[in-house]
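Provenance

Sequences were taken from public entries as deposited. Structures were produced by running a predictor on each sequence independently, with no templates supplied. The record for (apollo) hypothetical protein from Parnassius apollo is shown for reference.
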Amino acid sequence: MYADDIALVYGDKARFTRRVHAWREALENGGLKLNVAKTEYMACNSTDLTSLRIGDDTVERTDNFRYLGSVLDASGNIDHNIKARISAA
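Predicted structure for (apollo) hypothetical protein:
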């Protein structure tokens, strides 16, 4: 079983990294697996979080992604979300 559609939000890199590792451990203790190949992270208005490692794997950074039907953008811009909703209609 895999965890699906989960978002973690934190302000600083050190705290975020600790929480990601705690989250992965909690998932594994519950019998779920984290598919790092499908995992992405987005840093809003931040240049200090340039890479994220989970175990031996590096997680890809993205500027926007779909979460629960909405397109979230690192800049806070809603243009991607509007275009996605119009094209889906």
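DSSP finds two helices and five strands in the chain.
The mean pLDDT is 79.
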